[in-house]
Amino acid sequence: MITPRLDIAADIRQAHAPPGWVYNDPGAYRVLLERAFRLSWQIAADVSDVRIPGAVHPFTLHEGSLAEPLLLTRDHGDTLHCLSNVCTHRGTLVCEHPGNERALRCRYHGRRFGLDGAFQHMPEFEGVAGFPSPADNLPRVPFSVWGPLVFASASPAPHAPLERLLEPATRRVGFLPLAAARFDAGRSRDYLVQANWALYCENYLEGFHIPFVHADLNAALDYSAYRTELFEWCNLQVGVARSDEGCFELPAGHVDHGQRIAGYYFWLWPNTMLNFYPWGISVNIVRPLAVERTKVSFRSYVWDTGRLDGGAGAALDRVEREDEAVVEAVQRGVRSRLYGRGRYSPTREQGTHHFHRLLAACLNGEGG
Length: 368
Prior knowledge:
By secondary structure, this protein is an alpha+beta fold. It has helices spanning about 20-25, 25-35, 160-175, 195-205, 210-215, 215-220, 315-335, 350-365; strands at about 40-45, 55-60, 70-75, 80-85, 100, 105, 110-115, 120, 145, 150, 180-195, 225-230, 235-240, 260-270, 270-275, 280-290, 295-300. The strands form four sheets. The chain has a seven-stranded antiparallel beta sheet, with helices on both faces. Strands 4-3-2-5 form a four-stranded antiparallel beta sheet, with no helix packed on it. A three-stranded antiparallel beta sheet has the order 1-10-9, with no helix packed on it.
């Protein structure tokens, strides 16, 4: 079955939102996994997962969908590596549990690799022609460290390097002590949302619903000053506080200096949210599991525990549950044969329109 073409007009005043099939069609779901997620940068792990030489940390990129087995290691020279976690002999997982190792040894037939992925030894292979070769090494995977986070991509799109993707966030919040943020397991959890991943993202990308869905958050924010800024592969929502409580202390020369900024909400194509508060970072990773099922992982990284319970960054669990309920209602609605294509608010839905333009380009094979 051929996925229909999706057209989203560049002028938000003329544009119509996607029809319901975008969120319900299995073909569209598979196309977006391949064209958007496979080429994207994803949060793979925390730097603390591989803190000391010899540390190994297996993980799955695109867990629940494309499911690529990867491995972070820190070799004994203290260098970080991201590798395929699939043995180059018969395809077994090389490393199944985090820990500390001198080398990587496949438990199936004993093939051994260094922590840098280089082939070292294979029993019973005497006489094999052209062996070993570079193909016997574990493939290296592009990755980068940003603050407390490790980003990786098994197939990064050449037109969207990670530095370019993160540049707007680096420029806006680079004054914050990002490297000092520590993972807080007590404030982190997963949510299962019975809705298409794209519906969750587009809900995140507009503040239009805040007065109607989030009473407590609306009380903390000045809705009239809430704004969205668009970039090539990401966008930013700026939350301005009603009072001086729970605001950033912005350095002189900062573009927002003199404003009561309560939160910076960055969305990275296609599915990552980095939310910055005076206390630290709340990360949302949106993982597609099926056409109408999504796992959202909330991960908190804290540098100032004394500011956790004030301002827009408080009560995040309640905000998430409110979003979950409304997004699931939308999923039920877009199944309707009577639903057509909505229009956009030019002042409140710029981020959602931007997302839909990128989504359409992917579906149509034009980029993403």
